[in-house]
Write a structure and sequence with these properties.
By secondary structure, this protein is α+β, with helices and mostly antiparallel strands. Helix content is 13%, strand content 13%. The N and C termini lie far apart (115 Å). It binds zinc ion.
Length: 164
């Protein structure tokens, strides 16, 4: 009955439980392999994720450009405010179409040319290299002069251009 089964059939079977209603036989000696082996596996501990390295080259470049002392960038404070930068009006020696800040009308500026630093520089370079007879040329070429842009409607100075 109880001993009819071979011990090898339930060795390692965790579902097998000995029936307490049947006391073990007097000569029954439980083999060491009778009990289901308790396998205690250590719970695998997840390795902590490595911290991502923060690239601070941008701050370093800014420090190099501005020449300021290196200060640690504030971490943890993220400012996500949009920066609105109005493009500056670029004046050249030619008329520029723009809105007059005085009379608020769309105008084409009227540049008025005047001899400036670039005019005298070119004149001096021509004189140094022996072109004495050509020293008057920069004074008649508008691209070598400073330009002051006027509004043709209200005669307001809206900008200036200095090539030097
Ligand atoms: Zn105007």
């Amino acid at each position: 009955m109880y001993n009819a089964q071979s011990p090898q059939q339930y060795i390692g079977n965790p579902a097998y439980q000995p029936n307490p209603a049947y006391p073990p036989a007097p000569g029954f000696v439980p083999t060491p392999g009778y009990a289901p082996p308790a396998v205690i596996a250590p719970a695998p501990t997840p390795a902590p994720a490595p911290m991502p390295s923060i690239n601070i080259n941008v701050n370093q470049n800014q420090d190099h450009e501005t020449g300021n002392a290196t200060k640690p960038a504030p971490t943890g404070v993220v400012t996500n405010q949009p920066i609105v930068v109005a493009p500056p009006m670029v004046f050249k020696g030619t008329p520029v179409q723009m809105t007059c800040p005085s009379c608020k009308r769309d105008i084409m500026t009227q540049p008025v040319y005047k001899a400036g630093g670039m005019t005298w520089l070119i004149c001096g370079i021509l004189g140094i290299f022996g072109f004495w007879l050509c020293c008057w040329i920069p004074f008649v070429v508008d691209s070598c002069k400073d330009a002051t842009h006027y509004c043709p409607q209200c005669r307001t100075i809206v900008g200036s251009y200095k090539p030097l």
